[in-house]
Structures are given as structure tokens and as C-alpha cells.
Write a structure and sequence with these properties.
Layout (H helix, E strand, L loop, with lengths): L14 E5 L3 H11 L4 E5 L25 H10 L3 H7 L3 E4 L4 E5 L2 E2 L8 E4 L2 H13 L4 E4 L2 E8 L6 E8 L13 E4 L2 E4 L7 H7 L6 E17 L10 E4 L7 E9 L2 E8 L9 H9 L5 H8 L7 E12 L10 E3 L5 E2 L7 H18 L7 H6 L3 H25 L13 H14 L4 H11 L11 H9 L12
Parallel strand pairs: 1-2, 1-11, 2-7, 4-13, 11-17
Antiparallel strand pairs: 3-6, 4-5, 8-9, 9-10, 12-15, 12-16, 13-14, 14-15, 16-18
Helix pairs in contact: 1-4, 1-8, 2-8, 6-7, 8-10, 11-13
């Protein structure tokens, strides 16, 4: 059978450059590969040949989970990806039927939900995505390269490339020689929370995007343990969510059949220790016994690693009145969330799905130069508006969850108090009503909108439930 040739691309779809080879950059490259003749991905690091943490992704040593919506997005971008991940040792679990969730100290009623998550380390997920992207026709991944900023046309209306220079072998050093400009029709900044895109835009005469921040001063510590069948009753994982009055939490995720990732975290001055006795005492202060059980009885496989995350930050590129043509921002460079909600990989993959769909709908025929100039910011405008809708749900969940704590810094709305009282009662009711639990997890995994929690049927279930659920730690 003769393969169907790929459709010819217009001149302005010749070359795209992606800054950053993390999950956001790699999935963006996948989205671009369908419509651009060439895609070059740049990264400051020397990328590992096998799954391993790296300097440019410091959170890669911490616990990660692939939420249900993120798993769907990666499967859409890379058909067969989830089976490949499972074959490499990752785990798959029903988040309500095979895990324990403690909400406001109440154990969510276990029951099959169909909300499926995947346990795998961040380096493992990134490794398999990177291999898929590197195998795409026309895609090149360049390592050890620092992006210095976009190059624009004389009228600064759109990008024409990106300036780069090689990094030296020294830790954190850059070489002074070898600067070059890589021509590009599109530049995507996926460089993470340290993105310099706002400064780059300002240098070219554009406004910086407005930023919304919610500061909760999260500190978290991850350690890996050998998993044995008897641990936590054979379940796949545990989540103990902080709440006002107890700004501490913890979680367990099965990264492999024989390996747990365990995280302890605290907000607003609560800081998990890294010594064994201190970690155990901290875990014993949590509502459920599961994390403490693993720390007490399981064999540690490495040393604890601590990380700090001061604030969630959202840059509102969608609200700019003028965009630099051919310049996009995605992933944590667009919006970064409190990592204890596990939303980062999922939000990045969803943004790539959106980008792919927008490119597929763009005109495929070359436009006249004056038409291109008139619509220079068309794709950025459409992408940022669509990406904002992707970000809305995880931002509402993460920012809203953090702003429950009086000490968290951020803007609160006039209706927040009433909503918080309802959701507090909802969490307690979910400890006896599995339908409420299933919806809560569907929303947390971005399968349903948050408004579903307040549907008339759910409000009725909450009002009919006992005022308090069973005691934290009670078995079903």
C-alpha cells in the first residue's frame, strides 16, 4: 500500500522552535509536527538516555501522578502510549476503588468509579514522551542550548527566529561564544516557571501579561519505598488532603508494582522533616494511618528530597490587547499550580491537544503578505484564549483549595465563603455517599467541570447526608 503523502505546508509553516524539552515542550512539539515541515526542540540540559531526574526539572525527584484527563490527552497525542507506559512498569488504578482519599479528615467512601489514574515517575513519563517525539519525521531535539530570546521583524510584528547559545560543561554556566539565530516561523516558550517571555515581550515593545498569584508556601518531601502486597491493604495509593486546622498532608502512589513514592507536605509554615523519626511523627499526625504504616514498615530505597513551592502563578496572556505574531507560551510558563494537586502534566498535555486542533483548523493555503501581516497575532490570540479555558479548571481547584486557608495570600471573591461552606459539607457527605465521591474525583481529574459538584441532584445528596461522616481512618 502506498502511504498517503502529507499535505503540502504553506511557506509560513516551514519551521517551528520549541524552548524546553520537558513535558510541555515535548507535547507542543508533537502538536506542531503535523503541520510544520520541521520542529526543533531546545533544552539547556544534557538529556538522560534512560529515565532519570535532571537539573532542569528539579521537581522530577518528587511524587507525580498522571491524572485521568492527562492520560487521555497523552493517548490522543501518542496512540498506544498508555499501554507502552504500563509495559515499562507503570501502574493503573481506579482512584476511588483502589485508593484511600481523606477529605477534611473524612475517608471518602471507597467504590468503583471508572476514574483511572496512572502511577509513574516524572522521568519515566518524560522519557517515553521524548522517545515518541524524537521519532517523529522532521523533529530534532537539541541539547545543551540556552534560548536568549525571539528575533522579530523590523516592525516587531512577528517572530523570525530565536537567538541561542551553547551551554558550557560547568554547572549552571553558559558559554560566551557560539551565539546563533535559528530562523523560525513559530516560537513556543515551554521553559517552565522561570520563563523570561514577559521580559522578552517588553523588550520588543509589548506589554507584560498580568499575573495572578496565590501564595501558600508549600514545602514537600518525597521518598521511595519498596512496595509489598500487604502494604496499605493492597491498595494502589492514598491521598490525605490538608484542610483548615490541619495544613498538613501526604500521599502514596504506586510508581511500579514493587515501588511506592511517598510524599509529605505542609502549607504556611508547616514543613515536613527529612529524618526518619521526624517523617514518621509528621505522618502520624495525619488523619489516616496509611502513610505512617508505610514509613514504619517499608524498606526505603533512597534518601528524602525536599522542595519548596512558594506560590501558584498564572500569566494572563489571553488578556493582552496585542500579541507578538508567531510566539506562544505553554505549560508552567503560562500557568503553574501548587504541585500537591498533581495537575501540571495534565494541563500541559491538554494545551498541546488544543494547539494541535487550532493548527488543524488554520488555513492551509499561503496567504498574501498583507493578509499575513494583518493577522500576525491570530494564532497567539486564538491559542491563548483556548489555553485559558484549559487552565480555568485546574486553577480554580488549586487556587480555591489554597485560599481555604486564612493565611494564604490571594484574591478572594464575595461568594467564596458560601461556596466553601457547601464544599466542606460536600466532603463530609462523600464519606458516606460514593456518588459524591465519584463526582469529586472526576472533577479533580478534570473529567468534569467544577460546576458538576453543585448540580441540583448533588446538592440534594449533600443536604440529605448526615452532618458528619465516619471517623477518619475507618475502614469500609
Amino acid at each position: 500500500m502506498v502511504p498517503t503523502p502529507r499535505p503540502a505546508r504553506p511557506a509560513e509553516r516551514s519551521h517551528a522552535v520549541v524552548i524546553g524539552a520537558g513535558l510541555a515542550g515535548l507535547t507542543a512539539a508533537r502538536a506542531l509536527a503535523d503541520t510544520y515541515e520541521r520542529v526543533t526542540v531546545l533544552d539547556r540540559d544534557t538529556l538522560p538516555a534512560e529515565p532519570a531526574p535532571r537539573r532542569g526539572v528539579p521537581q522530577s525527584r518528587q511524587l507525580h501522578v498522571l491524572l485521568a484527563r492527562g492520560a487521555q490527552a497523552l493517548e490522543e497525542l501518542f496512540p498506544g502510549f498508555l499501554e507502552e507506559l504500563l509495559a515499562a512498569g507503570a501502574t493503573r488504578a481506579d482512584t476511588q476503588g483502589e485508593a484511600h482519599w481523606y477529605l477534611d479528615g473524612h475517608l471518602l467512601r471507597p467504590a468503583p468509579s471508572g476514574v483511572i489514574s496512572y502511577g509513574a515517575s516524572r522521568p519515566r513519563v518524560e522519557h517515553h514522551v521524548r522517545a515518541r517525539v524524537a521519532a517523529l519525521p522532521g523533529v530534532v531535539i537539541r541539547q545543551g542550548v540556552e534560548a536568549l530570546g525571539p528575533v522579530a521583524t523590523s516592525d516587531r510584528g512577528r517572530v523570525t527566529g530565536v537567538r541561542v547559545r551553547p551551554r558550557s560543561g560547568g554547572a549552571g554556566e553558559t558559554g560566551g561564544a557560539g551565539e546563533e539565530t535559528i530562523p523560525a516561523d513559530l516560537v513556543v516558550d515551554a521553559s517552565g516557571r522561570g520563563s523570561r517571555a514577559p521580559a522578552w515581550l517588553e523588550e520588543l515593545g509589548y506589554h507584560r501579561p498580568r499575573q495572578t498569584r496565590v501564595r501558600a508556601d508549600v514545602v514537600y518531601v518525597t521518598r521511595h519505598f519498596r512496595r509489598e502486597p500487604h502494604h496499605i491493604g493492597g491498595r494502589s495509593g492514598v491521598a490525605l488532603v490538608p484542610f483548615p486546622g490541619l495544613p498538613r498532608g501526604g500521599a502514596i502512589v504506586s510508581e511500579r508494582e514493587d515501588r511506592f513514592a511517598v510524599v509529605l507536605f505542609g502549607l504556611l509554615g508547616e514543613e515536613p522533616p527529612v529524618d526518619e523519626a521526624g517523617m514518621l511523627a509528621y505522618a502520624e499526625s495525619l488523619p489516616g494511618p496509611d502513610v505512617a504504616e508505610v514509613l514504619r514498615t517499608a524498606e526505603p530505597l533512597d534518601e528524602p528530597v525536599r522542595m519548596r513551592y512558594p506560590a501558584s502563578a498564572r500569566r494572563h496572556y489571553e488578556k493582552l490587547d496585542r500579541h507578538l505574531g508567531g510566539f506562544l507560551v505553554t505549560g508552567d510558563a503560562l500557568c503553574s499550580f501548587n504541585p500537591t494537586y498533581g495537575q501540571g502534566m495534565t494541563a500541559a498535555a491538554q494545551q498541546a491537544v488544543v494547539l494541535r486542533a487550532l493548527l488543524a483548523r488554520e488555513p492551509r493555503e499561503p496567504r498574501e503578505p498583507r493578509e499575513r501581516g494583518r493577522d500576525a497575532d491570530g494564532l497567539p490570540r486564538r491559542f491563548f484564549r483556548a489555553a485559558a479555558k484549559v487552565v480555568d479548571t485546574p486553577w480554580l481547584l488549586a487556587a480555591g483549595g489554597d485560599l481555604r486557608f486564612p493565611g494564604a495570600e490571594g484574591r478572594r471573591g464575595p461568594a467564596d465563603g458560601l461556596l466553601d461552606r457547601y464544599l466542606t459539607r460536600y466532603r463530609a457527605a462523600a464519606s458516606v455517599d460514593p456518588v459524591l465521591g465519584r463526582t469529586f474525583l472526576s472533577v479533580a481529574h478534570m473529567l468534569q467541570p467544577p460546576a458538576r459538584l453543585m448540580s441540583p441532584g448533588h446538592v440534594l445528596r449533600v443536604l440529605r447526608a448526615p452532618r458528619t461522616g465516619g471517623p477518619a481512618g475507618a475502614e469500609s
